[in-house]
Amino acid sequence: MKWLLKFVNYSNGNSMKKLITLLTALTLSSAAMADVQVSDSYARAVPPGQPNSAAFLTLKNTSDEQVALQSASSSAADVVELHTHSHVDGVMQMHKVPRITLNGNETVVLEPGGLHMMLIGLNQSLITGEQIDLTLNFSDGSTQTLNVEIKDVMAAMGKKHHH
């Protein structure tokens, strides 16, 4: 706030006009930012020595504006990449995607077998019950840093009932 007082005190006679322009620009830029809610985040526990893992979560765009998850990072891995799975000639293949787009008021689930984040070059063991940081970078310039719980995904998948 001190910068604002200095601006008003040290500007010439156009300071009020400049201030109104500045505040209008700030208001418009914040209004253009989408509001993405993140829930159900977790990373897959892996045995010590494994070089890679994956993270999963739910993204809910609560605005009318389209926004995309552009990238992610974590101190637990050298690189975090956005990935998806697809069937090619009857074989499930994983590949990198440049972004994950959320249309206005859309929910996208990152889950095993679908969209997910690969944690490549792990810097630490991912032990069930512990947490890692995960920073999400969106196309509107916003970021969210999460504390993501590490879960034993294989045990959880084995407990599902199939009918």
UniProtKB/TrEMBL annotation:
It comes from the Bacteria. Residues 1-34 form the signal peptide. Keywords: Signal. The keyword Signal applies. InterPro entries: LpqE-like, Lxx211020-like, PCuAC_sf. It holds the Pfam family PCuAC. This is Copper(I)-binding protein. It comes from Thiocapsa rosea. The lineage of its organism: Bacteria, Pseudomonadati, Pseudomonadota, Gammaproteobacteria, Chromatiales.
